Amino acid sequence: MRLTKISVKGSSPWNEDALVLNPSLNMYGVIDGATSLVPFKGENGETGGYYAAQIISDYLQGMQNLPNKEWSPEEALLQANRKLREEMTRQGIDADRKEELWGACAILIRLDDHFIEYAQAGDCMLIAEYEDGSVRTVTHDQLAHVDNKTRALWAEGIEAGLRSSEDLWAYVKPQIVSGRHTANTEEGYAVLNGDPALSRFLESGKINYIKLKTLLLMSDGLYEAKPSGHEPANAEETARLVSAMGLEGYIQHLIGLEEGDPQCLRFPRVKKSDDKTAILINFT
Asked: Taking Cα atoms as reference points, which of 75, 30, 82 lies closest to residue 57?
């Protein structure tokens, strides 16, 4: 088994993504923090999204000295969610106000002898590539229906004549707030934000190793930006590009697209560059 990992900060001051690397438990994962809509700054200016990703990652990587079969990705994420709630309470965050909550999407896997177990929240994704070249999207992008509305509204703002990312952000913010209020509900998506309701929406499962070539764990920052009017990028397309270009080569390709569109006018998106974090595991 060969493992390639990468985490590249986007255009925001803090990298709100995090890796989970706990080989003693055959545990690997990607965490994508989401900054609270009510501004929060730590002692050194840290955002709520940064704290969420770090708290979850640190908790998972701190799980040690357990027999491999005594933990599951689903329960581990639920425990991390409880830890996140404790930390937010300690910082005076109102758990009943979703706009104040620190949150994070996640994909976490356990490599068993015969199966790969996974648990997922939000839009962090798990994609399998097989020896015959076929690609299987294992997880579902739970945030696509929310993000697609935001991108459409951003494009609408461009059509209306807005020409700065700051003005466009203000234009779409009500939609972002509305989407955030659907966290851990049947109208929205699963997210680690301290809410016990996560247990009803977290997805989990397992796949086997038959003819498996690679596994890609990724945050949504790996989706390629698309012009207005084009179908959004999807996980299968992303995995095929990573297979063709290599993980680092593909990341540089994305950065090149973003640098050429700093105001997000050609490729509608809510920030110039999102954080990009991924783990590529090769079994052949």
From this structure: 30
* 150 vs 272: CA distance, rounded Å: 15
In contact, 77 and 202? CB cutoff 8 Å: yes
Taking only the tens place, the pLDDT of each residue in 77-124 is 999 999 999 999 999 999 888 889 999 999 999 999 999 999 999 999
The alpha-carbon radius of gyration of the chain (Å, integer) is: 18
Q: Between vectors from CA 278 to CA 214 and to CA 164, what angle results, nearest 5°? A: 135
Structure tokens at 120: 């997922």
Token reading at 167? 């003005």
SS3 114: coil
Distance separating alpha carbons of residues 53 and 55, to the nearest angstrom: 6
Instruction: Note whether 113 and 206 are within 8 A (CB).
Output: no
Is residue 121 a contact partner of residue 77, using CB atoms and an 8 Å limit? yes
CB-based contact 49:14 (threshold 8 Å): yes
Q: How far apart are CA 180 and CA 186, in angstroms?
A: 13
Please report which helix (H) or strand (E) contains residue 5, including its range: strand 2-8
CA–CA dist 167, 162 (Å, integer): 6
Model confidence pTM above 0.90 = yes
Q: Give the number of other Cβ atoms within 10 Å of residue 1's Cβ.
A: 8
